[in-house]
Every structure is written in C-alpha cells, then in structure tokens.
Write a structure and sequence with these properties.
alpha/beta; 5-stranded mixed β-barrel; 5-stranded parallel β-sheet; elongated
Length: 816
C-alpha cells in the first residue's frame, strides 16, 4: 500500500499535488482526501476485513456515498482522540462529529449485499491509518471528513531489532497456544507495522488495547506496546500450561485409580467379596443381635451401616467405619454365662487351689452367697445398678492374689480374663481412643470383654496400685472410677465405640501390693481383703502340694522319682527365701528340680532320689539368708523394729551412736539411711522424749551432751512410716544407758512426746515377719491387741506379745 505523492482535487474527494513531510517512524502527506465518515461500534485496525449491518441511516448514507466515489471510506472508532497525542477519548454516537486530529482507518467497500434476514450488509477492507483534518456535516447525506493519510516509514535498526525480539516471543506463544493462524501471520507479513496490527487483531484484544495500538502512529512505540503484551501473555500461558499439566497428571492418576478400583470391584463382585455383600453381612448380624442390643445401640449401629453403604470406597472414612463395625460385632452381645454357684463346691474349689487364707476364703464365700441369694429370691438391681462393691485383694507378691481371681471365676462358672494395669499412664488405655485418631482402638475393658467371650466375665484388674498418676494423657485412675463404681458402670461409654455398655454384670476383682498408693476416690469404691502372707507350716504344705509337683513336671520328672523331705523344705524356706509369699520358694524348688534332672539325664544318679536337710546345700549352694539378729544386737544402741513393705512384713534394725561435742558445740542429731519425713520426725520425737525423761529412763544427764547419730541400714532402700518411734527410742535408751536390748525381741509402734504408744497397722504382716526372722517376743501397742486374732494360732502359741500403753511398758519388756 504505497501512498501517492500527487493527486487531483475534485468534488468527489481528490486534491492537488503537494510535497510530503516525515515524522519518526511514520510518513504523513499534506495531501488531503475528502471521504465519507462511518462510525463503528468497535476499533478496527489496518489489514482487517469486517462485515457491518446497515441498520441505521448514517451507515447506509456513508456506504452509498463511498459507492458513488472511488469506494473508499474513513472508519472512526467509538472513542475520540485528543489531537496530537494518539490517545483514545470518550465514546461517540453514530452521528457524533469526530474532532480534528482523530486517528481513523481508511477502508474500501468492495461489495454490499442483502442478508437472508432481509437486512443490508457491507464488507469493509481496512487499509491504512489516517488523521482527520476537518469534518463537513450534512443534514441529509453522509458526513465527510478531510483526512491525511499516514504511512509507516522505513524501519530503523532499532525497529528491526524490536521486530526480531517480537517474533521470537510470538513464536513461543504460537507453540504454547498451538495456533495455526499466528505462524501464518509471522510467515506472510514482513513489515513491522503491519505485523503489529495483524497480531493485535489476531489476539482478539479489547477495544482499549486496539485503540492504543491504532493511535500508536509511531512504529517503534507500536512495537513496544505489542512486545509488552506478548511478554505478559507468554507468562500467563506458561503458568496456565504448568497448572494444566499438574491438573492433567492428577486427573490421569484419578482416572487410572478409578479404573483399577472398578476392575477390583468387579473382581470382588465375582468372588462375592464386594461392599454389597459386606453391608448385607453387617445387616444380617445386626438383625440376629437386635434382641440382645439396647434400642439406642441398635439404632446407632444401623445408621453406621447406612453410612457405609452410601460411602465411596475411596473415602478415608470407609475403612474406619468398617473397622468400627467389626469391633462392635466382635463384642459377645448374645453370650452370657449362667452362674452356677454352689457354695460347698465353691469352698472346695478355693481349698483345692489355695492352702490357708481362711479369712480370705470366708470373705469370698460370703460374696458368692450374697449373689446366689439375690438370684434365688429374684432381687433385681435398682435401675440396672449392681449392688455391692469391688473386691480388692491386697497383699505382698506371691501370696496368690491372681490365682484367687481364677478360682472365683471357676466357682461361679464364668469366663476369666486378666487386665494388667501396671504402668498404665493414659486414660485412653481404659476408655479407648476416639475414632478421629489414626490407629484408634477400644480400651482395655472392652478388649477384655471381647477376649473373655461373654458379657459377664470375671475381670481381674491386676496391680491397680501401680497405675501411673495422670499426665498429659489424662488420669487413668479417674477413668477407672466409672468402671468400678456400681452406680455408674451400667452406662459405661468407651470413647472408640461411642455406645453405652452395661458393665454391671461384670465381676471386677482388683489386686494390689499396698493400698497406700491407691487414690482415695478409687479406694472408696473397693472392699479391701488383705492377704498378709503364709506361715512356715503353710509354706511347707503349699510346696509339697502345689509347687514341687509343678516344678518336677516342668523338669521332666515325676513325684515318684524325687522325694523332698519336709525338713529340707523348711531349710530351703529359712536359708534361701524370706518372703511373705511363695514365689521365691518356687524358684528355688525349680532350681533343685533342674539340677536333679541334669544328674538323671547324665546317668550320674538314678531315681528314686531322696532330698534331705543335709542335701539342700549340695543342690542349692550356700544359704542366701543369714539370721544374724543376735550378732547384730549384741552391743548397746541397737534395737530391732518391724515394718511393712510392698513385699510384705520385714524386720529392720535401728543403730545409734554418740560422740563428744566440739568445744562450745550444740547437741545435734544426724539421720542416715534414706529415711522419709515421718521417720525423721519420729527420730526427733524419740530424742526429745529421752532428753526430757532422762531421770525416769536411768540416763545420765552428762551423756546427753553429745552428738547423736541414728542410722537405719540398707541405705539404698527408701524407708518411711509411722511405726518406728518406740524402736528409735529404745535404741537411744540402750545407747545412753549401756544396756543391751533383748536379741529375740522385735517392736513396733509410734511414740508421743508424753510417752504414749500409738496404734499402727499391718500387725499380722509384722508378726509373721518376726516369726520368719526367728524372733520370739514382740512389743505391740496396747490398742492393737485385738488385731492378734488375725495372726494364725500356731504362730501365736510360739511367740510372746507385750502390749504397751506407755513407753514404761516398752522399757520393761525391752531390757532383761
């Protein structure tokens, strides 16, 4: 499209020849053309072909005027431009007059036609830019405008460089958009200005950007505008491509997983393992158990089955709901054992499983008798709440607490399960974990019922005194309150199951070594039954009746091949074990059985083998327990006390010594042996009592002006308790008077500053410990006299008891 340098002025729009002028990147001629004016609803750039509808008079007049002349027309955008700056202005109406300086487009009208709907249309071929110089309005015909044609100048080196850069970016855009038209434009159009116009039109830019490009008559400015747009557009395309790639990858994976799951579902359906069958199985199980389930529980389970049926297998909750339903149906809802309590048979069962422990057996028989009588007379529990409290067997290790629980279950004809609570420190261990957590499961109580296989088993809560105190995971002892309280456990709710369980028919039996560490609210719901240990005769019987046959069988021997005399068992008890129970005794008998089995297996000895007193040291080695009480108490300042530990009763020694004070020093008291606060206070009270009653006790006042040291041996073992007062006082009196305490005497009791002897606990355990240690005399508080009835009669007959009301009574019994 070359611009003519001369023209002839006519009435139809031509003018006379003039010289041309130049601008940066453009060439503008001073020759003017008089052309009809047509306003378009949108901006049209040179090189564009458009079809317009001649639906208003001004458009038809403009096209007719162009047809009467040389077929050219000037197209004006819907906005005006300010003269000289090339910026678009405000929109104009079809009949508005464009101001001078507006940039428009000169176009040809090659053809007009009638559309199928009867409307007239015209084809316009936009050719080049033109600047309007003046406008001549007409009331009847078309408006005409005098325009100056604008021609792009020859490209400068900077323009050529900008064009190359633009082409590179446009080629990348063509790849990202997979366009077929853009590569054709880049291949067929070589002029920079025409390329910018064609690409802007191809990009389907809005009127604002096209107007900006139209008014950019400077070629370099026009290329800069298009380059800026191209860079922004390629960045958008790259981000979109990355997002599309990520989405496509995710969709492809989902489609692949979906197809695989559909195939898996088809396979499972053929095998009969699909979800439909699972849901049907669940509904069948629910229908079978509905008569045994509370209404709320059956409704809740039915809703969970419906959720599972509606849920997709891809949902993470799918496996959670299935696992929950499996756990619910694992509970033995329909299984309850019938109590077959025959009191004579129950007593026979207890006697067959345990020797001695008459008080404990009587208490268990009473418990069973109450349950039997209530069942026989039809006495129902009020509001589902069971009567009575929880039996708690308290005693040292090895006395048979756990096996007593098994015997109770046998006597009642119920299933038995043991729950070990030692070291439990999380409330969720009792109540279960909520289903929102990964790997959640029911608590130990629910799992115990599942393990027992019935809804009314005997559950033994073992080592309840060793439950750790509450930490960040909650207090498990607080969770046990609901389990053990008969007023609450008929509506026990496990966090995992979220349904109420009736535990009122479960017989809970707890065991503990000591009751002091059981929290008070939990202890309030328990009925304590104390097992204080066995006498030596009872241990001999238990060894011959239960322990030795069991250990011989484990060693591959029979009771006919090995005979252990009673005196040999007594020697083993006295020289190798010193305990309240029989656990260590069974270990020693097991050691003896293994050594005999080794001799028999190697043919060094042939059965039958008799084990006597003299053979014990040969089989078991040197004695482990040394009765050194006489040797340890053969000097003044030492007294033998009695105490209760987690392993049962035991003897302890209180040693004292004194030495002169430093010059101008004050009498002081030194305590060693890892004593607790109570025992430290007892030592101070004992020393204060001796100082204040020195004359009555026969103590020289000069001897009191010394530094006193009180020591309780076995310093690695913590010691505490309110029963060492009289022992410490006696040791101090012995030290300061130089008299020896009876070597066969043990004592227990607390003392006040006035010399009163206060009662203590654990009398039976302490007396049995004194008997095991070979003591023959025991000093007890007077108010503990009735507790001697709990001591076995054989032990009482072998020992002498001194009941003390004041320390004067202790003083009379302690010194010969």
């Amino acid at each position: 499209m070359s611009d003519p340098t001369t023209s002839t002025t006519t009435t139809s729009g031509t003018s006379t020849s003039t010289t041309t002028g130049t601008t940066t990147g453009t060439t503008t001629g001073t020759t003017t053309l008089l052309l009809p004016v047509l306003h378009l609803p949108s901006v049209v750039l040179p090189g564009t072909v458009v079809t317009i509808s001649l639906d208003h008079d001004q458009a038809r007049a403009a096209i007719e005027a162009a047809g009467r002349a040389d077929g050219r027309i000037v197209l004006i955008e819907p906005g005006n431009g300010e003269p000289g700056n090339g910026e678009p202005g405000n929109g104009t109406a079809h009949n508005a007059t464009p101001p001078a300086g507006t940039v428009g487009v000169v176009a040809r009208v090659p053809n007009t036609a009638t559309l199928p709907n009867g409307e007239q249309a015209a084809i316009l071929q936009a050719e080049r830019r033109a600047r309007i110089v003046a406008v001549h309005t007409s009331e009847r015909g078309a408006h005409h405008a005098e325009v100056e044609l604008i021609t792009d100048a020859r490209p400068t080196p900077r323009v050529e460089a900008a064009t190359r850069e633009l082409r590179v970016v446009l080629e990348e855009i063509a790849k990202l958009r997979q366009s077929r038209r853009l590569p054709e434009i880049l291949r067929t159009i070589t002029e920079p200005g025409s390329l910018a116009d064609a690409v802007t039109t191809w990009s389907e830019a809005g009127d604002e950007r096209r107007a900006e490009v139209l008014h950019a008559v400077d070629l370099e400015h026009r290329l800069a505008l298009l380059t800026e747009w191209a860079r922004q557009h390629i960045a958008e395309l790259q981000v979109s491509a990355q997002i599309r790639a990520d989405v496509t990858e995710g969709v492809d994976k989902q489609q692949r997983d979906y197809l695989l799951r559909q195939q898996l579902a088809a396979i499972q359906k053929e095998l009969g393992d699909g979800d439909d069958n699972v849901v049907t199985d669940y509904r069948t199980q629910l229908d079978e158990l509905r008569q045994h389930l509370p209404e709320k529980t059956s409704t809740f389970v039915a809703k969970e089955i419906e959720r599972l049926e509606r849920m997709s297998q891809q949902s993470p909750e799918h496996s959670w709901v299935r696992t929950w339903l499996d756990r619910v149906f694992e509970l033995p809802w329909a299984t309850r054992t019938l109590d077959q309590v025959q009191l004579d048979d129950a007593r026979a069962q207890l006697d067959a499983d345990h020797h001695g422990l008459d008080d404990v057996k009587n208490r268990i028989v009473e418990f069973l008798a109450v349950r039997k009588l209530r069942a026989d007379r039809g006495v129902a529990d009020t509001d589902g709440r069971a009567a009575g409290t929880v039996m708690t067997l308290v005693g040292p290790p090895g006395v048979g607490k756990t096996s007593l629980g098994e015997s109770i279950a046998k006597a009642m004809g119920r299933n038995f399960v043991r729950v070990a609570l030692g070291g439990v420190r999380d409330e969720a261990e009792i109540r279960g974990h909520r289903r929102t957590y990964v790997g959640s499961q029911p608590g130990r109580i629910v799992r115990a019922i599942i393990e027992a296989g019935s809804m009314n088993p005997v559950v033994l809560l073992d080592e309840v005194d060793k439950v750790s105190p509450g930490g960040w995971g909650g207090d498990p002892t607080a969770a046990l309150l609901e389990v053990l309280d008969p007023a609450q456990n008929h509506t026990f709710r496990d966090h995992y199951l979220e349904i109420e369980l009736d535990l009122s028919q479960v017989v809970f039996i707890a065991t503990a070594n000591v009751a002091d560490t059981i929290p008070a609210p939990l202890l309030d719901r328990m009925d304590l039954i104390r097992l204080d240990g066995y006498t030596e005769d009872e241990k001999v019987f238990i060894a011959q009746r239960y322990l030795l046959p069991r250990q011989l069988t484990r060693a591959g021997l029979t009771t006919d091949e090995v005979v252990v005399a009673d005196d040999a068992v007594r020697t083993t008890i006295g020289g190798y074990t010193r305990e309240a129970g029989v656990r260590s005794l069974e270990r020693e008998l097991g050691k003896l059985s293994r050594k005999i089995a080794a001799k028999v297996a190697t043919a060094q000895q042939l059965p039958p083998i008799d084990v006597g007193v003299d053979d014990v040291r040969e089989w078991l080695g040197r004695p482990k327990v040394d009765d050194s009480i006489p040797e340890r108490t053969n000097v003044p300042g030492i007294a033998t006390g009695l105490a209760v530990t987690g392993a049962g009763g035991d003897v302890l020694f209180v040693e004292t010594t004194a030495f002169p004070l430093a010059q101008d020093g004050e009498p002081t008291l030194t305590l060693t042996g890892q004593l607790g606060e109570v025992m430290k206070e007892s030592a101070h009270i004992a020393l204060s009592y001796v100082r204040s009653h020195a004359a009555e006790l026969g103590v020289d006042p000069a001897a009191m002006a010394k530094r006193v040291h009180v020591h309780v041996p076995a310093g690695a073992v913590p010691k505490d308790g309110p029963s060492a007062g009289v022992t410490m006082t006696t040791a101090l009196v012995s030290l300061l008077t130089g008299r020896l305490v009876k070597p066969n005497l043990g004592m227990t009791g607390e003392i006040t500053l006035q010399g009163k002897v206060l009662p203590i606990g654990g009398v039976k355990q302490k007396v049995l410990a004194a008997h095991r240690a070979g003591l023959t005399e025991v000093v007890l508080p007077k108010r503990n006299g009735p507790d001697l009835d709990d001591v076995p009669e054989r032990v009482r007959d072998q020992m002498t008891f001194h009941l003390a009301d004041t320390y004067a009574d202790v003083l009379a019994a302690a010194f010969s």
